[in-house]
Design goal:
Number of helices: 0
Order of helices and strands: EEEEEEEEEEEEEEEE
Strand order of the largest sheet: 4-7-2-1-10-13-12
Largest sheet: 7 strands, mixed
Oligomer: single chain
Length: 207
């Protein structure tokens, strides 16, 4: 049963509990090369995931391929990705690439930044744009925890709205709705403004 009219998520199916996400940022093509490993809660014969303009390359359970089908896109919902998970599958791993026109991603040229030298990228997943970044159940009814890793060009820094685990990795232990999944990449410096608060911005404006 679909109770959210803006998502393909079905209450009768398993739900995504945890996301392991890796992404390599390519400013030249304005795309991300990604792997999303979805840990599932519950069981069902299949799971329906929300996507928008994602180029799906492969789907497996971490060891063997899984049968999958990408439906025709609808203007608002995007395209439903249906994956067969019968037989007790607990993990779905999807390799894919985002579109240069991904609605969650804003790509800025150097001329659009304060420094004028390096490009900048930031995400905005609210309200239902996370599906253009990660194939998941893009509804606030299904909250997830996540671990993530970003590979970014030399000279730039990646940041995520999560706890910094070091080495370009982040961890979000609190379950969040997909629209809060957020990151930025650019020439960034940080300044502490309190015992647990820090502001990040381009070097010329951070102070």
């Amino acid at each position: 049963m679909r109770r959210d009219p803006h998502s393909y998520a079905d209450d009768a199916q398993a739900t995504v509990a945890h996301l392991r996400w890796t992404a390599a940022v390519d400013f030249a093509t304005r795309t991300l090369a990604c792997t999303a490993e979805l840990e599932l809660r519950g069981t069902s014969a299949m799971i329906d995931l929300d996507t928008r303009e994602l180029a799906i390359e492969s789907v497996d359970d971490g060891a063997a391929p899984l049968a999958w089908e990408l439906a025709d896109a609808e203007p608002i919902l995007g395209a439903r990705l249906r994956v067969a998970i019968g037989g007790g599958v607990r993990v779905v791993r999807i390799r894919y690439r985002t579109s240069p026109a991904a609605s969650a991603l804003q790509w800025l040229t150097p001329a659009q930044t304060a420094g004028g030298v390096h490009p900048f990228l930031f995400s905005q997943c609210q309200a239902i744009h996370a599906r253009s970044l990660v194939p998941l159940q893009d509804t606030p009814r299904v909250r997830i925890t996540y671990d993530a890793a970003l590979t970014v060009p030399a000279g730039l820094r990646g940041l995520m709205a999560a706890a910094d685990a070091g080495g370009g990795r982040w961890r979000m232990p609190q379950p969040i709705p997909p629209y809060l999944f957020a990151f930025a990449v650019g020439e960034l410096e940080g300044r502490d403004v309190g015992p647990r608060s820090r502001v990040w911005a381009e070097p010329s404006v951070v102070d």
